[in-house]
Amino acid sequence: MRARLLLVVWVFTLRFAAPAHAQAPLAFQQRCTVCHQATGSGVPGIYPPLADAIGAYVRVPQGRTFLIHLLLFGMDGAVKSHGATYDGLMPPAADLSDSDLAEALNYVLRTFSVATLPRDFKPFTAIEFKTARASQLTASDVYHEREKLLTLLDKAAPASAGNR
């Protein structure tokens, strides 16, 4: 009887008290994992990791804007992240819906960059993506936007610069 009670308590704990792992949104599964992998680890030398790499971006408004532009317009140019250089092309995902893009980005941030997210993180919304579509940027423009963002972040917190 005692063993049965312990089993019930154990199952209840697993079902209701254990943290739930969010299912990756379909947009992430179909588009992001091809290059960045399902684990967010990336591909050495080609596609940078997402893990602990972009959470700090949302500490400033320019970072939120950059991440939206990155998904909508893509990016072309070598980048450094976690001390390594990556020379892959980030294709635009503007063909996806605004809500799909917001959901995928929120998943990435909450799953792979939770340690670097600010405590007051506000999830991205479809409205932010809809508004940014009017920007009509190129992948090269987004690359330069990233460089400016990293300079801004380095001035604010130089100790964490290597994780971008």
Give me a quick take on this structure.
The chain is about 50% helix and about 5% strand. It has about 160 residues and is mainly α.
Looking at this protein, list some descriptive labels.
164 residues, globular, Cytochrome Bc1 Complex, Chain D, domain 2, two-stranded antiparallel ribbon, disordered N terminus
**Largest sheet, described in full?**
2 strands, antiparallel
Number of strands: 2
**Number of spatially distinct domains:** 1
Radius of gyration: 18 Å
Described by the principal axes of the CA atoms, the overall outline is globular
Question: Given the helix and strand composition, which structural class is it?
Answer: mainly alpha
Sheet with most strands: strand arrangement? 1-2
The named CATH superfamily: Cytochrome c-like domain
Order of helices and strands: HHHEEHHH
| CATH class category | Mainly Alpha
Q: In the CATH hierarchy, what is the architecture at level 2? A: Orthogonal Bundle
The proportion of residues in beta strands is under 5%
Mean pLDDT: 85
Distance between the termini: 55 Å
Which percent bin holds the helix content?
A: 40-55%
The CATH topology is what?
Cytochrome Bc1 Complex, Chain D, domain 2
Number of helices: 6
